[in-house]
User: What shape does this take?
Amino acid sequence: MLKRIIYLIILLVIFSCEKNNNSPNIIFILTDDLGYGDLSSYGSETIKTTNIDKLAEDGVKLTSYYAAQPVCSASRAAILTGAYPNRIGIYNAFGPTSNSGINHDEYTLAEMLKDNGYKTGIFGKWHLGSIKEFFPTKHGFDEFYGILYSNDMWRWHPEYPEGYPQDLLLYRNETAIKEIVDQSNLTKDITTESINFIKKNKDQPFFLYIAHPQPHVPLFVSEDFTNITGKGLYADVVTEIDYSVGRIITYLEENDLSDNTILVFTSDNGPWLSYGDHSGSSGIYREGKGTTWEGGVRVPSIIKFPNGLKPSIIDEPVMAIDWMPTFANITKSKLSQNKIDGKDIWPLLSGEVDQTPHKKLYFYYRVNELHSIRMNEWKIQFSRTYRSLNGREGGKDGVPVKYDMNLIENNELYNLSSDPEEKINVYDRFPEIAKKMEKLGEEARIELGDNLLGVKGIENRGE
Assistant: This one.
């Protein structure tokens, strides 16, 4: 009887190993402030991104993919939890002296995959809390190499050294290994460390989160990419990121890992515009980072998985909150018991269906203010202030010009199918659509809150 039990245990272990070994690896590459118009596969005529373009050609290119908020910490929280960031109490971007971070009650994408036998690593920028209890190693990541907040929160900032007197430290796991005084090799080193992680874990399923601090200002490139494009520092920076993506792809291919690896490339939000020659491009879309106009939240997003997805272009709206439930499906992982807002978009990505599972998408900003909603081809912009250059040129040499603050006096409605640039307010022409979307806004404020109107959401677990 004992021998039989031992035999069954061995069979279960073998079956479990086979299941895990067949599970797809996941590599999620997130850039910082890369705009919709910064890749040649998304229309850039200035920057040639050969490796990312090939990724788009071989994978699924999303043309209506949205960051959950147009700012760093909030957008990253959405990716890792599947929830609107304001639902979990994360707004804007944490500073170096913040005592806040991602709540331990949240079940992250890394924790979900780790519980399913994955090795997990983050290389790059974390920005979800900078005191030890909020470190990535406390939230599901086996390994961490990188920085805890944005690269401009730095006492060696070339234009604003007085802005943040704190050190910007480079960490390995929970240990600071040095103060960063020169960021020129960060993109290169993050990529090398990421490849080493793949090398160590290539015989088992792994989740690798590469969160590049660039092209967030201040901009830096390694010596090999300095002036490589002849089109300015921003183009050089994006070209080095493209090369980094190529290094990852090459390693996967050389080690027969490519077919069973899900590779995602995207951005945390739209680009800074006020830095001029140090800024990115939102393409045809209006405004940029820090707004919920399309230029602030619509960003490039590509997913490649040879074993499961055919090359295609999808224009249906999806959001960063969708990655967690989608990866739960494909890896057969157990989802969080917390309420999440994301949807499983695998049927859309695989061509099983041709419509998004979202009936509406909410766009919050600042301290829990509902700014916009997208429903099908419609986008409503609620009354508020927002920042804009109003057609002025940005600054030079990394020194920004000051934004204007514009006021939307009354709610505005746009049809993104006929007017993707959000130029023509059709609120008065489609009152039924406007009223329906305003009703959605009222419902969102009850559930998620809206500090602009003094409404506290009843289900916001972050408060």
Observations:
- Residues 5-19 have pLDDT under 50 and may be disordered.
- The chain has two domains: 9-349, 361-448.
- Residues 101 and 134 are 6 Å apart (CA to CA).
